[in-house]
Design brief:
52 residues, mainly beta, two-stranded parallel ribbon, 4 strands
Length: 52
């Protein structure tokens, strides 16, 4: 399931709940970390962005 919006053609939106296979691509960054819950710990050295 994908939602077509005004996204650039090389950036489709895919709802993560529809993915049934393992994702093998590495994490590039964590976004919106300012609004994460207090019990959610980001335990890696990937760049974090508090806001967009």
């Amino acid at each position: 399931m994908a939602k077509i919006t005004n996204n650039p053609p090389d950036h489709p939106r895919i709802r993560l709940g529809t993915i049934t296979n393992d994702i093998k691509e590495p994490i590039e960054k964590h976004i919106f970390t300012n609004s994460k819950t207090n019990w959610d710990c980001i335990c890696d050295n990937v760049t974090q962005h508090r806001e967009w």
